[in-house]
Design goal:
The protein has 97 residues and is mainly α. The protein has one domain (2-72). Helices cover 67% and strands 6% of the residues. The protein is built from 1 helix and 2 strands. It has a two-stranded antiparallel ribbon.
């Protein structure tokens, strides 16, 4: 009777360990798939935040320009150009004609 009980306990212990290892392995796979899904969601969130910022900034500029804030597209004749290849000589800023 003692031997039979010992064998049953041993066999159930072995099956218990195998079941525990397989359940841990399946949880690891599930965690890995959830981490991959999280990476995709974070990438999509970053994209959507950038798109939202772009839309908000365009709308803000349109409303500011429409309110008479003095905003206008730059006139190419009034743009300052600075030459960078002059060495140690002081830079001059002027209108290019």
């Amino acid at each position: 009777m003692t031997r039979a009980l010992a064998v049953v306990i041993l066999v159930s212990g072995i099956f218990g360990v195998v079941w525990l290892r397989s359940s841990i392995r399946s949880e690891e796979y599930e965690i890995g798939s959830l981490e991959r899904e999280l990476g995709g969601v974070l990438k999509e969130r970053k994209y959507l935040l950038a798109e939202r910022a772009q839309v908000i900034s365009i709308q803000a500029m349109e409303t500011d320009a429409g309110d008479g804030a003095g905003m206008e597209f730059p006139d190419r004749k009034k743009v300052f150009y600075i030459k960078r290849d002059r060495g140690d000589i002081p830079y001059e800023a002027s209108l290019r004609r």
